[in-house]
Write a structure and sequence with these properties.
The chain is of the alpha/beta class and 179 residues long. It has helices at 40-51, 74-84, 104-112, 124-133, 172-178, and strands spanning 7-9, 15-17, 25-31, 56-62, 118-119, 149-152, 158-162. The strands form 2 sheets. Strands 4-3-6-7-5 form a 5-stranded mixed sheet, with helices on one face. A two-stranded antiparallel sheet has the order 1-2. The protein is globular.
Length: 179
């Protein structure tokens, strides 16, 4: 299977087939509105505004598995993102990224970009602390926390995985190579 064979649930109902992103560069992010990394929405929006017309998308997938930091309904999350961070990319319906109810897209992403290939481990102390408090990350390849990012090229290949501490503003070079 490829990235384009999956779909995610839309915030307002229905499914979004990822084949709609064929030919585009996609940044997939598991997000949370009450996380210390939530200000990364600023960088995500900056990238989206700067490169959307050139074929760049942000796939925002809220997840409440890490410290219950994505509380509220899908609509409340959307209102928060648009009011606080002026996001123009949409938020999807909440999903799980690890464990028994893990979304199949995340099984695929983790297989294609294993944890040992994560980019951005500059803040090793922060990641060590995250690993200690993450209760849903049971296997080495699991998502450790909110704001883990996967970069997908125009052919649907997962080319990079970025840890939660990696600021989206520092992804421009990687995105430009794919655009």
């Amino acid at each position: 299977m490829s990235f384009y064979d999956y779909s995610v649930s839309k915030r307002k109902g229905g499914e979004l087939p990822l084949s709609e992103f064929r030919g585009r560069v996609v940044l997939v992010v598991n997000t949370a509105t009450g996380c210390g990394f939530t200000p990364q929405y600023e960088g995500l929006e900056m990238l989206y505004e700067k490169y959307h017309e050139r074929g760049f998308e942000v796939l925002d997938l809220p997840c409440n598995q890490f410290g219950s930091q994505a509380p509220g309904s899908d609509e409340e999350i959307h209102r928060f993102c648009t009011a606080r961070y002026k996001t123009k990319f949409d938020q999807m319906k909440k999903l799980e990224v690890n464990g028994e109810n893990e979304h199949p897209l995340y099984t695929f992403l983790k297989r294609e970009a294993p944890a040992e290939e994560v980019r951005g481990l500059k803040n090793k102390a922060a990641m060590a602390a995250i690993r200690k408090i993450s209760k849903t990350a049971k296997k080495p390849e699991d998502i450790q926390w909110n704001f883990t990012k996967f970069l997908v090229d125009r052919e649907g290949r997962v080319v990079k995985r970025f840890d939660p501490t990696f600021d989206p503003k520092n992804m421009e070079e990687d995105i430009l190579k794919l655009l």
